[in-house]
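Good day; I would like, with your permission, to put a structural problem before you. A protein sequence and the structure tokens that stand for its backbone fold form the material at issue. Thank you for your consideration; the sequence and its tokens are set out here:
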Amino acid sequence: MAAPTVEVVEDDLSEVSAKLSLLLNRLRDVDRVKRRKALEEIRRDVINHGSSKCVEDVVPHLAQRYFDQTPQVRLAVTQVIGMWLLELPDRYSYFCKLLPLLLTSITDDVPKIQQTADELWSKVGFQYEKENDQDFKDRLDFVTQQPPHYPCDVVRPNLGCRELVYRHMSRILPALLRDLTDWVAATRVKAAALLYVLLLNAEDRMTQHLESLLRGLYSACGDEETSVVNHVMKSARLVGCFVPADAWWHLMMADLESIPTANHVMTLTAIVEGCNRSSLRPHLPAIADVLAADDVCRMQEVRFQQHLVSCIRTVLNVSKDDCSSISAQLFNAILSLLPLIENESSNKQAHEAMLELAKVQGFTDQWHLMELHMPDVLNNLHETCNGWSSISHEAKVFTTLVTESGPVIGKHLNVVISIFEITLSKEKEAELRLKLFYTLAELMVNAKYTLDSEGMFAKYASKLLNSVIVPNCSWQAGRTAAAIRTTAVSCLWVLFQSGAVTPQLYLRHADALLPQLTSLLEDDSRTTRLLASRVVKQTLNLCGDALQMDALLGIYPTLLKRMDDVSDEVREATLKTFAAYFSALDRSLDVTLHSAHLELLYSGLLLHMDDSSALIQQSVFEVLKQAAAISPALLGQQVEKIKHMHQRKQYCDELLAHIKTLL
């Protein structure tokens, strides 16, 4: 009787196999109703009449239905897989194939499918507990508490679910990580979503797969699909939540110290975000050292910079005042990043990170943080500044530090001025000097709130004049050299405006400074000529009567040349300088002895009283009215000489009338 029974079974299996082939073809039918019915028949036939071979044949086709655009079809697939996991006679042999399919439905976009999958998964877990109650007896009697840092708004899977995932993870995870790099975007999205659910069920037992898991996270977090990145970052947070920091940091530190990438930093950020504060605390110094390492915080890649700033802020947010012990490293990391960041959003986040670092220290603003760390940073920069070039990162850090430190810089003028003195010497690279001169000029414009915040800037004015500004005013060929002269004279102009230059200080440097100013009046740059003229005016107002007569008489020929300047703005500034010049000359000139010089001055200016510009005519007239007091008779003679040559004689007549009142 045995043989006929076998023949019947074999015939039955043959029929089932043939029917399955037909149903599998129907799964690809355009009509969604037919696809759903085919799924129902597949579930029933496999359970009632199928064999292991049937399950293996059907599973790949069912997996493809998870990409079906019709929610009803995906729901039907979920129900089929759930029922198989609960009712299939040989289901234990196929857990590793069926579990990923059901868990995929938990992340479906349709709430009904999610809910159905959750309910089925919970039933599968409870059934597994019941069927293996002897194995789980101790764990069921003493149920482990939910981890204290468990994700919010997530219901913890039951023990059976967690145990099922643990026992089959070694077979599921490798294939899943491969799918994370699949060329089809939809496959990567499904794989990334499944990874999160898998890790949520695995909890701390994912530790034994950590090395391969981290490699998968590194690769996937740079995906072009936003949904893939979001799911992967959620998975990385679970690593921080469930895996002891001793385990993941040991592996990540080696990766970050070898060839750090934006993906490494991005993964670290997510893991730290999910980490328990107490678990992270022992590793903060090592994490801070890695983040502040030169090859990390000096990275030029925009994406890397964005994620590094985010990582620093995450460390501060998770560890809070624990970060007091690593404040110096984080400060240096942010400070090194700031001069490299060109993205406006990242720059704003970096400044916010600086403020957050100040707050964890108990400060209300970043100035106190600057005051805490600035001495050490400046001393380190001072040690290296002699070897800086225009591309030196230290030079960029120095520029950022002094411009960001606000009033705090006034407390460290000794070191700051010394660095400027060394780096702005004429032996240094021109491009470096130009960049640092711009910084110095910017600081001097706001000297009251920066360099002079402590009222000590005047003490360093002499050193700036003698060692920095005057040497850089001398002529050298090249556009960069011209720009340096312009910036140097700008600094000189601001220095005079600030009141830091006293008559005594100026006179000590007059022999070197006045010839340089005279030379700058003939510079090719309009801006340099304009600023030089203004500085000469300030000089004459400040201590014109104290200047030697030879020095005074050496200025006017160059000033007269500037009256022929192509720029009306320069000519206007020159006339204002002449007003100051005649005031200084009036107090010390011997008219009889220096009448020839005075005659040249009068005649040179009278030419421009007939200028094509009405504004220049009026300005020259006002200056000559003032100058008439020195020698009215001599000026009157000069006016009479040129009056007949002027097209507009109004100013000549008015000037002669004014001279008569002085005689």
Remarks:
- The chain is about 70% helix and 0% strand.
- Residues 2-131 form a domain with the Leucine-rich Repeat Variant fold (CATH 1.25.10.10).
